[in-house]
Automatic annotation (TrEMBL):
EC class name: oxidoreductase
Protein name per the record: Flavin reductase family protein
One Pfam assignment: Flavin_Reduct
Organism classification: Bacteria, Bacillati, Actinomycetota, Actinomycetes, Kitasatosporales
Any one GO MF annotation of this record: oxidoreductase activity
Length: 190
């Protein structure tokens, strides 16, 4: 007997869509724009790499949200990839009443990248970007960012994951091969 996925013939409800998407494990980021008194930031897991040449990434931000209104073609923003130790930062910037301005900058650790955007101190990695293009996507706007700077945090830190509404832990990420180390690749022929 097959263990095929049940096929639904009716239009899915938004709650069912959210529940199903929650089964896709992601990392957690804080997207920020501005610095010092003009800092605004939000927690997001909708970030992906797009291109190596040129370096580009994409973030998805709710169109009616306050951060979306601050971004446009040519604007600078940053994406900080959070570590397990930054779960409280994730919760803080996920709230509707999250801090902004100098308080947001301070809570992020008062770290400003060379491009001028606030970055989360202690992040696994951080990317500074300039908005290259934006696209409507339902109730979100997709911002394509050209990466202008890359910062790498502590190699021993563990990533903050998001899965089914919670933050599971990797058992031993340090036993995984490092991406930047040469690896033998087995070629499989059909």
């Amino acid at each position: 007997m097959s263990s095929a996925i049940h096929q639904e013939t009716v239009r899915p409800a938004p709650v069912d869509f959210r529940r199903a998407m929650g089964r896709f494990c992601t990392g957690v980021t804080v997207i920020a724009c501005g610095t010092d008194d003009s800092t605004d930031a939000m927690t997001a897991n909708a970030m992906t790499s797009v291109s190596i040449d040129p370096l580009m990434l994409l973030v998805s931000i709710r169109t009616a949200g306050r951060l979306s209104g601050r971004l446009g073609i040519g604007c600078s923003f940053s994406v900080s990839v959070l570590s397990e130790a930054q779960e409280d930062l994730s919760a803080l910037f996920a709230r509707p009443d999250r801090p902004r301005g100098a308080e947001a900058f301070e809570r992020l650790g008062s770290w400003r990248g060379p491009g001028g955007s606030a970055l989360a101190a202690g992040a696994l990695a951080a990317f500074e970007c300039t908005v290259e293009a934006e696209y409507p996507g339902g109730d979100h706007t997709l911002f394509l960012g050209r990466v202008t700077a890359v910062h790498q945090g502590p190699a021993e830190a563990r990533p903050l994951l998001y899965y089914r509404g919670g933050h599971p832990r990797l058992l031993d990420p340090l036993s995984l091969p490092a991406f930047d180390q040469p690896q033998e690749v087995e070629t499989i022929h059909a």
